[in-house]
Amino acid sequence: MSVRKHNFVSLIQGMGERVIKFIFFGNYFVGFLAIVLSLETSTQLRIPFNSTIYYLMLFTVTVMYYTYAYSGVLKSTSTVNLRAEWYRQHRVQVIFSQWTLLISAVILCSILLIKYFENLLRLPLQYWLVVLMILLSSLLYYGLLPKSLLKLNLRNTGWLKAFVIGFVWAGCVSLIPLVVLHIENTAYFIDPILVFGLFIKNWMFCTINAIMFDMKDYEDDSNHQLKTFVVRFGLKRTISSVLIPLSLVGIVSMLTFAQYRHFGLTPILINLIPFLLLLLVSYSMHRKKSIFYYLIVIDGLVLIKAICGILAMQFV
Is a pLDDT exceeding 70 seen at residue 311? Predict the structure, then answer.
């Protein structure tokens, strides 16, 4: 009986580990974060939510975008890390997932285009500029533009890398929902200052998150002479000279946003929670962490930020 019980527990643990790897290694959790952060934006700006079709499209595109970074790993035979090894072992599954997500994204986008084509044609120039700016940044991050047009891969620019991915995230969850809401012909008005404050707050938070992720690739980036913050300054100086100052910028931006919106003490304290946790986790980075720590704990901070942002508005 004890042997059967042991086998059953082992089976459950094995299934749980496979599910965790599937969700986090497969970037499905990141797709979920994109939706939750977009919901936070709508809640904090007190504007209507976007359509379900848009959120599904955002999920599919986000998962595809992050999985693309491991496309080269699928053809490699050398073991680099646990995550890369998972991609090689599940090569067929990953390729099938990418194609399924791509087809789904095309169908969802087509539905939106057909339904709101006339609104899209009447979209003001400033909205087009926002979309173009974010789209260009996301393409340049992977160097996806034709080489004859521009040979630039922002992902390999070292210290700029984290700011670019933070900018793309902030744009996708703070600005794109407003553009899509306009296309979906939903009437709303929002103060540009509020939008800017929320954008800066998200940009700093996501940039810090990206820098902490660079810490797990410290040795690999150093060997490839990729001058990220961690490679340039070392772990300790990155925490004290980069992470903490950027966290303070995010906190000041949040407090300015709260003051402008006339938040009371309770919503301000709730909004401070993720930034305080960010500082706490930053200090914990002095010791080497497992890949799951980065995928669950550090990315989990983004989820906590979104939940706190939504919850805080219930007390305004």
Answer: yes
